[in-house]
């Protein structure tokens, strides 16, 4: 897998160009969009299939803020559904080897995002024992060492948090699609552990990376993931993403 060295907007193309941006037509919404991030969903959303998108997705991969804005405008705007029933297990076993390359997803992402990697002997260059992370969320450099008391220094973040996804359409996806979402490299990033904990399950309306140079890339990935899996955004979330895109060159 290719290394991800993004520190800002211009690095987006290198990462996303290797990803297949797919999605489906969003379901039609009825009535006016809710202004409350905690209101329940008034209408149900059909379980989507994952299909190939048009040139709009290809334009997003070039780092074109206007293309990202256009993709954002295809997402339904609704309030959050209740969190009732959310469990991490609803998105499959954590860090499955979904691509059947012999390595679990966590190690795949560490291998992609870290430099100067050293692998644990006997794992066929699978388990990352140590490496260096140029953290996109804080702009700092973190020296990673695998261990009971050290591994949490670098965590794998779901850019669209699974709880947020659950409340914005993922509970209506099939189990297989939720597992795909939880292990999709487009939604995953090795980051500073404490900063990831601070983010929790926030969306763009409540949390953005401290490193302002990475925020355009960050919200672009959120839009792409939500388009790919037919998730929606709240009105406050859409406004926050739109405002951020206005700062992107």
UniProtKB/TrEMBL annotation:
Claim: Signal is one of the keywords in the record: yes
Pfam families per record: GmrSD_C (PF07510)
GmrSD restriction endonucleases C-terminal domain segment(s): 104-242
InterPro entries assigned to the protein according to its UniProt record, in alphabetical order: GmrSD_C (IPR011089)
Keywords: Signal
Lineage: superkingdom: Bacteria
Signal sequence, start to end: 1-22
Region Disordered, annotated ranges: 29-54
Protein name per Swiss-Prot or TrEMBL: Hypothetical secreted protein
